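question for whoever is on the cluster today: can someone run the full assembly for these? two chains, 475 residues total. i dont have access anymore since they changed the login thing
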Amino acid sequence: MLASALAIARDNWLLLLVGQYPNGPLGGIAATLMLSVLGIGLAFPLSVLVALARISRWRALRAPATALVYLVRGVPLLMIIFWVYFLFPLLLGTEVPGFTTMVCTLVLYESAFLSEVVRAGIEALPAGQMDAARALGHSYPQAMRFIILPQAIYNMAPSILSQFVSTIKDTTLGYVINVPELTFAASQINNRLLTKPFEVFLILALTYYVVCFSLTQLATWLERRVARRRAGPALVVVAAPS
Amino acid sequence: MQGFNLFAILLNPGFRAMLLNGLGMTFVVAICSWVLAMTLGLLLLVIRLTPGRIANGAVVAYISYHQNVPTLVQLMLWYFGIASLLPGALQGWLGDHHGEVIFAIIGLGLCQAAYFSEDLRSGLRAVGRGQIEAARALGHSYLGSMRFVLMPQALRNALPALVNHTVSLFKNSSLAMAIGVVELTQAVREVENESFRTFEVYLVATILYLGCSLTIMAMGAVLSQRARLAGAR
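^ ran it for u. tokens below:
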């Protein structure tokens, strides 16, 4: 069984890696990673805005941001994929490729989850940071931009990386609307071979495992580093006088 | 496109029945896999607390696999892969008895057990070391101090994470459609195919999902409120 799994991996590695590219659309791991990077990359600036809106003093900003976060957290990703899949072509009046649909869905979905991470990062900072920044003459936006956000985002880097791993796992759902990515490539191989489903899906699971496990390990390492830096001499000096 | 008409879906007995059956199947899958996940999660925690190195390593590997492989892929491996290795008679029986539902419950349950077990473990770690020492000093056995002193506190610590993961388990039940379970998401697609009222059907389903998720979150909030009162000085 292991031998036939290896044989399948050997015969199909290119399809698993890049899909039918260059003769067709980019697929496989390359597309999975591109979807995740685009999804998280575009979601990040959006998530900072949502987080700022959620901690804003103004209700007009807070209420819609809170509603958006709860809406996205309460509805399955699959549901949101189908919404985007049906609504976007209707709104834009043209056909939207599956890849674009998936990127838009991921941006929407991950920005809601990431905004919670960013918000937690901001709220975990001591209130004195904001007070000191304001006392030194920074305006609220300046204090956010130069004092609060850089610290919050640095402290939250491990959680952001974990969210990236979740995003990689979420891209598999593109399979349902036929987005050419890794899961789709595996099911193509399975449909062609027909007799080796266990081996094909085992290879698929192991491939995801290798990618996500390495990134999870990286996140753990980053977390230790951040914790060390936070407990480092700089903070001790600040804390000493009190 | 037709005009927006929610009642064309809600008042049509056929469509209503399809959606309600789908919702029922979503509940069946979610509740059964929750029970499986919680039982297994506790079992994994117990194994991790015992000193055996091999058993510990196996649990760590189990959790690592289930947290780092996408849930959809796990379901596909169960339904397409592992099912094909079973003896023919069993495959036939599963085919006649909604094997896809059984595999969805197994797949989702085993996956979520990893998360539940980790939640409980970090809840337990947050309980101070003095607690177990005090419980033992007062004459409780190891199991007794676990049952009456440590676990209640660990559960309270773990409650927010457990509620979050219960919501994700409920949401993940929609993935079962990819292996042919006719739960709410699949029912929606079927109603949509027959009625062509895409917008209305998706709206109904989104509200149903959202309502259930918010109910779980609210129940979690009530539970942690009560847990906090019970522990107040």
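summary bc i know u wont read the tokens: The interface with chain A takes residues 1, 64-65, 67-74, 76-77, 80-82, 84-85, 167, 171-175, 177-178, 185, 188-189, 198-199, 202, 205-206, 209-210, 213-214, 217 of chain B (CB under 8 Å). Chain B is about 85% helix and 0% strand.
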